[in-house]
Design a protein that fits this description.
Elements lengths: L1 H15 L4 H9 L10 H22 L3 E4 L16 E5 L2 E4 L6 E3 L5 E6 L4 E7 L2 E7 L9 E2 L6 E18 L14 E5 L4 E7 L4 E8 L2 E9 L10 E4 L6 E8 L13 E10 L3 H22 L1
Antiparallel strand pairs: 1-16, 2-3, 3-6, 4-5, 5-9, 6-7, 8-16, 9-14, 9-15, 9-16, 10-11, 10-15, 11-12, 12-13
Length: 300
């Protein structure tokens, strides 16, 4: 029974810690089914202690996968969207790249214009904050994700299914900044039943609320600058808690006034996916060692 628990622990760690090759090597070296009765407990104990040490090392060696348009970090082919922000647009600057409807960051995030059909990705800088949105022939707001005329949708596919650890959205303003009539909102949809809405609530705050099957499961208040001199930027930590996601879409939510997707527009600045907290994975290894201790005391 105990040997089975150790095997299950290894399998769970492998699922949670992608890229933690040290754990896999331990599993390969310790064949629990071949251990002799005289040496099995000793080797299992050694494996558990090695597991705890290996997970700590893996925490150091396995960085999160991320990108950030504002800092220019790990942009891959998406870097072309923000590498020449030289076209004046009021107080903003547009990148001169046009026609790119999909790109891939250095870590493997894929950004894709889901709609409209003639839409393309474009970068923009406002008050020192950089974001990427959608520009189309009939879209009234350049390089943002909105729906004043029709719904624009930006799809993001993560490198591998994982926990979304950060999501940064920008250009969300409090009326009457830039002539906005509402406190702007951004919708982040993982599926039809799991989604979050970031809503500007004041000139310096916004609220992030997540719904699953119509029930509110997460709510947090964020600080930012949604005045006409700010970037309207909010960075959401662990936006969907520990729920694993493979992709998500960004779009403007329907207006409470019923005028279909109007009023709000925003942009994507950064995102990251990661592994469970090192303390969690290390705890699994220590738990395995504790199980061995309990078994030995019972047999004594």
């Amino acid at each position: 029974m105990f040997e089975r628990q150790i095997i299950i622990a290894f399998r769970r760690l492998e699922r949670f810690w992608r890229g933690g090759r040290g754990l896999i090597e331990i599993k390969k070296k310790v064949s629990l089914t071949r251990l002799s009765p005289m040496t099995s407990k000793l080797r299992i104990a050694t494996a558990c202690l090695s597991l705890a040490a290996g997970t700590a090392l893996a925490a150091i060696a396995s960085p999160a996968q991320a990108f950030n348009f504002d800092s220019g970090t790990d942009l891959g082919s998406c870097g072309v969207l923000v590498d020449n922000l030289s076209t004046p647009l009021g107080i903003a600057n547009l990148d001169d790249t046009t026609g790119v409807s999909t790109c891939t960051t250095a870590d493997g995030f894929v950004l894709d214009v889901e709609q409209p059909a003639d839409g393309y990705l474009q970068g923009k800088e406002v008050n020192g904050t950089i974001g990427v949105g959608i520009t189309s022939e009939n879209g009234p707001t350049l390089a943002e994700i909105g729906g004043e005329v029709f719904q624009e949708i930006l799809a993001v596919t993560v490198p591998v299914p994982n926990v979304l650890t950060e999501l940064g959205l920008s250009f969300l303003y409090h009326n009457p900044a830039f002539g906005d009539n509402v406190k702007e909102q951004g919708l982040v949809k993982v599926s039809e039943t799991l989604y979050g809405i970031l809503s500007v609530t004041s000139a310096t705050t916004a609220e992030w609320v997540v719904y699953e099957n119509g029930v509110e499961i997460i709510s947090k208040v964020l600080n930012g600058d949604s005045t006409a001199t700010g970037g309207g930027y909010y960075n959401i930590k662990n936006p969907f808690a520990d729920i694993v996601v493979s992709s998500f879409t960004l779009l403007a939510p329907e207006s409470t006034a019923g005028d279909t997707f109007r009023q709000s527009d925003f942009a994507l600045t950064n995102a990251s996916v990661g592994i469970p907290e090192p303390s969690l994975v290390l705890g699994l290894g220590v738990a395995g060692a504790s199980l061995l201790g309990l078994r030995r005391r019972k047999n004594a």
